[in-house]
Amino acid sequence: MSSRGPGLFSDFGMKASDVLTKDYSTEQKFSLSSESDAGVAIASSLAKKGGFSAGVVAAQYKYKKSTVDVKVDTESSIATSITVTDILPSMKTIATCRFPDYNSGKIGVQYFHEHASFTAAVDLNKSPNVDISATIGTPFIAFGTEASYKVDSRSFTTYNAGVSLTKPNYGASVILADKGDAVKATYFHQWDQEKRGVAVAEIARKFSTNVSILTVGTSYAIDPHTLVKAKLNNHGNLDTLVQHELAPKSFLILSGSFDTLAMDKHPRFGLALSLKP
Known about the structure:
The protein is built from 1 helix and 19 strands. The protein has 277 residues and is mostly beta strands. The protein has a 19-stranded mixed β-barrel. A hairpin with a 4-residue loop joins strand 13 and strand 14. The longest helix has 8 residues, at 14-21. The radius of gyration is 21 Å and the shape is globular.
């Protein structure tokens, strides 16, 4: 697979999004995973939010250029996916399905080139959606678009467009979404490589409602095993997170959510423990 091209449209703003969203949670979650030398990985997780609990058991098998994933949850739903790389040069094929919903099947392809990438996916049912995306450019600057077409109504349900700039220590992106009704701009800056210090700003505006949300966030490693993160938006919502590596690939994550404009409200806290023996 080529890694020198502009990447996928879904990658636009990904680094900034990870800082602002990844691992933040107000749930209590426990997960345990293991992997064998034969290419088999098994993971189980249990999450509790409020008075509800949900569990997932997942298995993954890798063989040469193929990967098979199976997930079973407590609602008796089974999600499967098969990924095959390089059937043709620089191409990845992905097939997914969720049981017992037999109409949820989907097959897609991803093609990577030195100056472009392309994806296409189609539902395997009588009234399918066709999802496509394309980017052109370089690993440093790329222009892209994506759309979803409903075959039975012969109409586009989604179309977005954007531009992304990526450098080793900073990056920016602007995406016009929701058929032109919303715009989101992000900026990512790594100000301390040794401490993994990162600062992020994101502004999202919806024109039909005249609502804008500005979010700033940061991530910083206190020591080689402890990472702290925080984000704050213009509505006064503050989220914090502390992640500590107990052992290689095993983490304890404590997170909290606060409304700084209504301090009489009780804050919400989350706890996640991920173990990989």
